[in-house]
Amino acid sequence: MMPDRYPRATVVAIAAFVFIAFGVELYAMSVLLTENAAGGEFSISLLSLAFGGSVVIAGLVAPRVGRWADHHAVRGLMILGAVLAFLALATVSLTDSGWIVVLAFWLLLGPAQAMTLYEPAFVAVGLWVGANKRNHAIALLVVIGGLAGPVFLPLTGYAVDQFGWRQTTFAYGTAILVAGLIVSIVFLPKDKPSTHRPKPPPPVRWRRFVEDRRLGFQTLAVVLLFASMNSMLFHRVAVFEEQGFDVALIAILAGVSGVLTFPGRYLAPRLAHHVAATTILTWSVVGLVGAMILAIIGTPEVVMVAHFAFFGIFFGFTLPLRPVIMNDWFAGDDFGSVMGKQWSAAAVAGGVAPTLIGVGRDAFGSYFWPLVVLAVAVALAAVFNELSVSRFVTRSEPVS
Fold first, then answer.
1. How many of the other CB atoms lie within 10 Å of CB of 133?
2. N or C end: fewer C-beta atoms under 10 angstroms in the chain?
3. How far is CA 196 from the centre of its chain?
4. How far apart are CA 339 and CA 179, in angstroms?
5. Are 315 and 264 in contact (CB under 8 A)?
6. Using an 8 Å Cβ cutoff, are 280 and 389 in contact?
């Protein structure tokens, strides 16, 4: 592959599909699961079980998805993921049975998430974009994908009010199906890795994450960071509501915080051409620790505003750095398998951690100690990130 190869139309098409998939499969769910929508017909507990389980299953499926991408690329994966997402959402829109909803989320939407969100897109960038242009492609991908929240949250609220949650859910499933077919058939290259390989790369074993200390430490950083951030995103409205702030104000600040992620999404991959990506990640995580400390303090209002500002700015910088670092270190025949294994651990932790934080909040009667735990976990992510490039690791395992 030419180092300057950059099929921009392909990258934009993949990013557009990820934008729709993210918007429907994640952001729209926070509206569709409310009492004004599906939560009014099914219990919030049941819907939370359904959605949380789908995230965990997506993580468990990720290694298989990554290995398939290594040998067959992502055209078939995206088509299959789009079909599964459509079947899941169509089933949910038509059923009156809570357990069918759970099964549709677990058996259909969970695998669909593994095939339609960022992971296959990052592998596609590694397959089809030259090494000199990958950071530019990753920046474009995460910026377009980042529009999903600002677009789909208000769009879903409007659609539910105007047409009802069942019609909205079915329409969203159709949108993913149509987008997946158009993008995969029209815009994605027909070549695949196996065209140039006599046989598939050998499977990536979990012991590699222990034997390759650089990979192991970086994975620990990813797991801790994703679990902590996912927990904070899930609980932050309740955190500040508990401290006496108006929910409407918190929601506005959360929206502003999302917008503040965009400079980091765009700049971090480009900055990585001049500064080590791990250094950028460490300082970004330090900023997130500051945001977590502000959440623990909570009041007065200026502290809450500062939390959302810091969180948005520094969280935006962390988002594209994982694929940048992993592409720099491990791009190759088994890149998809390595990414899939790593994301499997992160996704399972990210699915379980919010539940544990909720249990901790009820056990202690407040969010204070759970937030302290999250702040420590974020700080440890920075420590493990630095360990991944420390001398005793890189001396025996130099960066490729």
1. 18
2. C
3. 31
4. 25
5. yes
6. no
The pair of three-digit structure tokens given for residue 128, joined into one six-digit string: 């089809």
The domain defined by 8-188 carries CATH number 1.20.1250.20: yes
CA distance 349 to 372: 18
pLDDT tens-digit map of 213-260: 999 999 999 999 999 998 888 788 888 888 998 877 887 888 888 899
Calpha distance 255→296 (Å, rounded)? 20
Element (DSSP H or E) covering residue 297? helix 277-297
Q: 256 and 308 in contact (C-beta within 8 Å)?
A: yes
Q: Which residues contact 60 (CB under 8 A, 6 or more apart)?
A: 344, 347, 348
Tokens standing for 335? Answer: 């890149």
Give the start-to-end residue ranges of the domains of the chain: 8-188, 208-393
- Return the structure tokens found at 227: 């679990």
Q: Which residues neighbour 139 within 8 Å (Cβ) at sequence distance 6 or greater?
A: 265, 266, 267, 268, 269, 270, 320
DSSP-derived 3-state class of residue 317 = helix
pLDDT in tens, 54-63: 888 998 998 8
Give 198's pLDDT tier (boundaries 50, 70, 90): low
124: tokens are: 């596609």
Q: Which of 232, 218, 220, 240 is nearest to 327 (CA)?
A: 218
CATH class of 208-393: mainly alpha
